[in-house]
Write a structure and sequence with these properties.
By secondary structure, the chain is mainly α. The chain has 16 helices and no strands. Helix 3 crosses helix 5 and helix 8 runs antiparallel to helix 9. The longest helix has 26 residues. The relative contact order is 0.17.
Length: 372
Amino acid sequence: MRRPLSPLWLAAPTRFAALSAGTARLALALVALLLAATLLALDTPAPPAQSQEAASRTDDVADVVLYESIVEGMRHGGDYYAVAADALRGGNYPMRPFVTFRLPTLAAVQALLPAWASLALLWTLAVAVVLAWYARLKPAFERLPPRIVAMLLLAAGLAVFVQPDLVAFHELWAGLLIALSMALRKPGRWIEAVALGAAAVLIRETAALYVAAMAVLAFAEGHRREALGWVGALGVLALAVLAHAHAVAQVVDPLDPASPGWAGMLGFGFFVRTMTISTALAQAPLLLAAPLVGLALVGWAAWRDALALRALSVFALYAALLGIAGRVDTFYWGLLVAPTLLLGLAFTPDALRDLFAAALDKRRITVKRVVR
């Protein structure tokens, strides 16, 4: 049997270290296929870049302006659904079906707080994500330099999430809550993770994919009480959505515009593109940034930890959501998983070294029978 090589950065060998030569070669072929698939992003439409001119702000970040106007209307005593309906009509937004209205949770909280307090709360949440992931990753990296690299990669994933202009954007808050929930979840310690997951879905219902994945994996691993906790979070969301749908029906008219639907069918390349524009990879050429997204996924697949399986499952679900249902103007769904994606690059050096070492291994043990 081949003995695994000593890890480069990690405290323990990756999942790939114990692969047979044939299996490792197949895995390398799949990695090459994945990296080639990320280049589909080069032929995928992207949303228009944000203008640097203040006069153009209402054109290229119209959704943010919409959410800010709703919060401002509520601060002046308006009812959420009446204010939201007026804002949507004024911006010629679709108003049917009811999911075109955001859940009122974030707007209600921000209406109670001054603008500076909302921003301070967002930054506090981002700091909590960094601290939680540092503590979670500390056992995985024995030395300080790899930990610093991992935190820099996390910071690259959080670059968009600390922008003051986006404080009213629902996906930012839900994405940070998901990232914090994932870092805090451990076997036997899941209540905080479930509570944060419930908060995420009550801000943005598309976070339900994360909660559902955590429920399924908890059940598969035999953590029945934890699985019930995640299912309970989905139950809370279901009740909230029912109440939300009823409230929306009271303010929508039959002649209000309907959504064009959510069947963009833009494929895996669109997921890759959303990951690049939702992180610091937006500053790199797409030809370089796209393969880095693939390498990050390889890193997550290699880390020998239950958390890695959860993260990879969540990335796969949102890749499917964006690839099948996403439209060019719904790229922001990717913000729900963008904070932690690039952390996978911290595991990639060990992953690739172990894969190549296993694939190139040609050592054999020959047993000879000696007859005297």
